[in-house]
Design brief:
The complex is a heterodimer of chains A (about 200) and B (about 500). By secondary structure, chain A is α+β, with helices and mostly antiparallel strands. Helices cover about 35% and strands about 25% of the residues of chain A. Chain A is built from five helices and eight strands. The two termini of chain A are about 30 Å apart. Chain B is an all-alpha fold. A two-stranded antiparallel ribbon of chain B has the order 1-2. Chain B is globular and about 65 Å long. In chain B, about 65% of the residues are buried. Classes of the chains: A alpha+beta (about 200), B mainly alpha (about 500). At the A-B interface, α1, α2, β2, β3 and α5 of A face α1, α3, α4, α5 and α16 of B.
């Protein structure tokens, strides 16, 4: 019983050490807010009010464009990360939020960067008609845009590996290797011991 | 009198829990390799740390718990339920270290949601996470769908007779083959074959839809994992609405409906028993309740005039309802659109579908079609008894792989679990209401968590009260393991404290 308590206590300490705030520094700055009025959240919250209206919507182009013939789909987020994302050190500010934009394919060529793990995407501004349930696209909520401007160009970045993390990884891997070896040896001894006993 | 567990009991439980956690560590090799392949070094270090912690715990537990004793029934249940808690606590490290979670509790929420194939999440800025972390999210749900204990059974348990007891403890009780290890491997065989076929189909469709090749293949793999496991995680915050394609929706619907079927049914079909699909009580029950809920939602949405034409109306209604009923959680509408466009009746129809869920011994959650079928047939039998002559003997059968008599024990067991699920759903709704959420929304979200569905109407968020996060973690865990293992773990804890 004492060994079990020791094991549980050890596991809790290990998790507390690895999962402590020091291992993952808190980002305390205020999250960025949407540049739009209406915001993406307001469009979802009051779809009837904006249905069929021409609006201007700005935000970060994310992931990639999907070109379908002479038109294309892009997705634009106006959330807390549209200028700087978490990987670059932006404070946490809730879920991603944005809208799907259907636009002529030639406009998409203006976009250089799409947001992902290693990129902050271009901030684009589109103007077009908001559809609460688009008849052309199976009832999707979307914006059919006729113009696109790049407001701010995105960029590539690389998150550096922290030396503290690397040091912790090396120490933990070494400890794990030791325990694996000790366990293997003990299992081996048990097997041989049992075989020896059965022979006797 | 409560009997205090002996030292040997602790050792057996410690040993097998250790093995399961080593299995979780081995799983992390996949996202680790993904990160290395894409040069995501910071994420790779996160996985190295997490793997090492799994091995330290797993091998440490095995070293401290040396015993030759095999598992008894109570041990199996405790190992199953306990392993899920430990696997969640340690499996949350990559999420937490990524910096995309507000707290360790949020990271644990996401991992429990993954293992239990729920699909609700707390992770923030999903659209900027690494391929490695996205692989881990989807692998969690794929592995959780098969059962993390099934993984350990397949690779790490060596022919122990007690293995079946852990397998049952994880909410599965079908033996496809005489040996439980062979059964676990059969489950993997079925899942891996579908993984190959499904990923290829989705990748080709993704390419045709204009995705770049790397993203088409990765999205194909991840969406398959999210669909087959009825997990509902998707690589982008737009979920499956990202693709804007009826072909993609159709393929994903086939995948998640197939994933929601009983593994025994898959095995029967694989071994030539195709008629089983039409005759099985679960598929019949699923077809009826899905039709009814789709009709109800469609009628309401048509009356409200939300969608511009019949095709759009049916497409949205069927996809959301089928996703909810199979407890998948894929959505082609915004979360808040359930409230702002679907309204009370649309939400209640979805809530009922989620609450019922799909098949037992599958990756799906909820009350399950077999229980709904059994309770309905039992009700019909009671009515027939009432109208039949007093001397008549009325006996009812139901078909599940073979014809089974509907005896009192079967009905009682189905009723007990159904009552447990309904109580949990009501409790979750009450909790949400106490925190100020509208009742319909808190019922929708609570049922979604308890039935391991993952559709959200906006209640779940990183800003949700911590008590609700903890409660949802427990509901997801209870729902996935179907209560008994968790009760056994609680009993074990009580017997340590109060036993003699």
């Amino acid at each position: 019983m004492r060994r079990i308590i020791a094991l549980v206590a050890f596991a809790c300490l290990l998790l507390a050490a690895v999962g402590s705030p020091a291992a993952c520094p808190a980002k305390t700055a205020t999250p960025t807010t949407s540049p739009n009025s209406p915001t993406s959240a307001e469009l979802v919250e009051h779809p009837k009010q904006w249905d069929g209206e021409t609006i201007t919507f700005a935000g970060e182009a994310i992931t990639q464009a999907m070109i379908r013939g002479d038109h294309a789909w892009i997705h634009v987020n106006d959330d807390a990360y549209y200028l700087k994302n978490v990987e670059e050190g932006a404070p946490l500010g809730g879920y991603n939020s944005g809208h799907a934009i259907w636009l002529p394919a030639n406009l998409v060529r203006k976009i250089t960067y799409y947001g992902d793990y290693t990129h902050e995407g271009d901030v684009v501004s589109v103007t077009g008609v908001f559809n609460a349930a688009c008849g052309e696209h199976g009832g999707d909520m979307d914006i059919h845009a006729t113009s696109l401007d790049v407001v701010a160009e995105g960029h590539e970045f690389e998150e550096p590996v922290s030396l503290e993390k690397l040091g912790a990884a090396v120490a933990l891997v070494a400890l794990a290797g030791l325990l694996w070896f000790a366990n293997r040896k003990a299992t081996h001894a048990d097997t041989f011991g049992a075989a020896g006993n059965s022979k006797r | 009198m409560i009997i205090r567990p002996r030292r040997e009991d602790h050792l057996v439980i410690g040993k097998y829990t250790g093995k399961v956690i080593v299995g979780v560590g081995l799983l992390m090799a996949v996202p680790l390799l993904t990160s290395v392949a894409f040069g995501e070094w910071d994420t790779a270090v996160d996985f190295l740390i997490s793997m090492a912690v799994c091995f330290i715990f797993g091998y440490g537990a095995q070293l401290l718990s040396r015993t030759e004793s095999d598992l008894a029934w109570s041990h199996g249940l405790v190992v199953a339920a306990g392993s899920w808690i430990w696997a969640t606590a340690i499996g949350a490290l990559p999420h937490f270290l990524s910096g995309h979670e507000s707290s360790y509790l949020d990271a644990m929420f996401d991992v429990m949601s993954g293992y239990t194939t729920t699909g609700l999440y707390m992770l923030q800025d999903l659209d900027h996470i690494s391929y490695g972390l996205n692989m881990w999210r989807h692998l969690l749900t794929y592995a959780g769908g098969q059962g993390i204990v099934v993984i350990a059974l397949t690779f790490l348990f060596k022919g122990t007779a007690g293995a079946y007891k852990v397998y049952v403890g994880e909410g599965k009780d079908e033996r496809l083959l005489p040996n439980v290890i062979q059964t676990a491997r059969a489950i993997w065989l079925v899942s891996l074959v579908y993984l190959g076929v499904g990923t290829i189909a989705l990748s080709i469709t993704g390419l045709a839809l204009g995705q770049n090749p790397v993203r088409a293949v990765l999205d194909g793999l991840w969406v398959f994992m999210g669909g087959w496991s009825t997990g509902g995680f998707a690589p982008q915050s737009f979920n499956t609405a990202w693709f804007h394609s009826i072909s993609y929706e159709l393929i994903t619907a086939v995948i998640f409906i197939a994933g929601s079927f009983n593994f025994a049914l898959h095995w029967a079909v694989w071994t030539g028993e195709r008629k089983e699909i039409r005759r099985n009580v679960e598929t019949v029950s699923f077809a009826i309740t899905l039709t009814l809920t789709v009709l109800l939602a469609t009628f309401w949405l048509a009356k409200s005039g939300v969608y511009p034409d019949a095709m759009a109306l049916f497409r949205k209604s069927f996809y959301q309802l089928a996703s909810g009923h199979t407890t998948t959680g894929f959505a082609t509408i915004y979360s808040r659109a359930f409230v702002t466009q679907w309204g009370t009746v649309g939400m209640l129809a979805t809530t009922v579908a989620m609450g019922i869920g799909a098949s037992a011994c599958s990756t799906a959650g909820g009350i399950k079609g077999i229980r709904v079928g059994i309770i309905t047939r039992s009700f019909v039998a009671d009515v027939r008894r009432m109208v039949a002559p007093e001397s008549a003997v009325v006996r009812e059968k139901y078909h599940h792989i073979r014809a089974n008599w509907l005896d009192d024990g079967v009905v009682k067991s189905a009723m007990a679990i159904t009552v447990a699920y309904v109580s949990m759903y009501l409790l979750s709704a009450l909790l949400g209401a106490l925190y100020g959420y509208p009742l319909v929304e808190s019922l929708f979200e609570g049922v979604s968590a308890g039935s391991n569905t993952g559709l959200s109407c906006g209640v779940t968020s990183p800003f949700m009260p911590a008590v609700m996060k903890v409660a949802y973690i427990v509901f997801m865990w209870l729902g996935r393991l179907e209560f008994m293992s968790v009760f056994a773990l609680l009993g074990y804890g009580i017997s340590i404290v109060r036993g003699r």
